[in-house]
Amino acid sequence: MTTVDPHAQDGAEPARTAPCPAPSVRPDPSPLRFHGAVALVVGAAHGIGAATAERLAAEGASVVAADLDLEAATARVASLPRIGEADHAAVGLDVTDRGGVDEAFAEIAERFARIDVLAHVAGGNVDHGGPAQTGDEVWEGLLDLNLMGPVRTVRAALPLLRRSDRAAIVTISSVNALVVIGGEPYAAAKSGLLAFTQNLAAHVAADGIRANAVAPGTVRTRVWHGVEGGADSLAPLYPLGRVGEAADVAAAVAFLASDEAAWITGVVLPVDGGLLLQGPGPGHG
Q1: Which range in 6-20, 53-67, 211-225 is most confidently predicted, on average pLDDT?
Q2: Where are the domains of the chain?
Q3: Where residue 8 falls among pLDDT bands split at 50, 70, 90?
Q4: Deepest in the core among 84, 130, 238, 242, taking most CB within 10 A?
Q5: Which homologous superfamily is 38-221+228-272 in?
Q6: What is the CA radius of gyration of the chain?
Q7: Which of 175, 216, 213 is nearest to 193 (CA)?
Q8: Which residues are catalytic?
Q9: Residues in Cβ contact with 15 at an 8 Å cutoff, skipping those fewer than 6 apart
Q10: Helix, strand, coil content of the chain in percent (nearest 5)
Q11: pLDDT per residue over 241-255, tens digit each?
């Protein structure tokens, strides 16, 4: 499935502010908020998932890097910082394969006694036409990847999350779920993911598990490779004057997963450079 950025739109009024500087990819956090924790990052090999894995490892977590691309996940694990007795692992995981999900979690359970953090990042979009031109195959594929994928993962993870006394789930939705900018199947899936995350938060609260979502705007990832103008062509859409970096989203995930957010559950946190303040502008949707 070829991935494209869901926010590749034109026509908004240019931003009038100077660009806000991007954060460092490798932070130097203090204190170590995830010391001793086990963090499962689904979609950890590239982009936002890779930045999330690095951020959580830099803050002391043992990271399980799960990805469809096991070779890339293994390479990612080799590059992660190891704090204290952190024990990182790579696991092959196809979130669209129910049997494969169950097998991956059996492997995780054999090595780790529990999961403290589940960050579900895996997802994607494809090129397609408008609603009248988009067939069932595209709809079903994007709903399966972006909605049912997280559902399968969470369902398999809950027994291990219930063994933690600080468990947190963070899903990655999108600003497409919050404002009309096209990409109907992707937007519908990400909207469904928000509803799932919020209902999940209510359902698992009695177990002491929190569930929140992050809704990124345009983020500079590999889907922009080879695209004319790159991600920066969309910088004028954003009041802060730049597109997002994977580290921007990873920082939000780390906050929501940390004990600093211990009384926060069932929320969606936009990480969008101010896009939702003004909407996507004329010509969108």
Answers
A1: 53-67
A2: 38-221+228-272
A3: very low
A4: 238
A5: NAD(P)-binding Rossmann-like Domain (3.40.50.720)
A6: 18
A7: 213
A8: 186
A9: 235, 236, 237, 238, 239, 240, 241
A10: 40, 15, 45
A11: 999 999 999 999 999
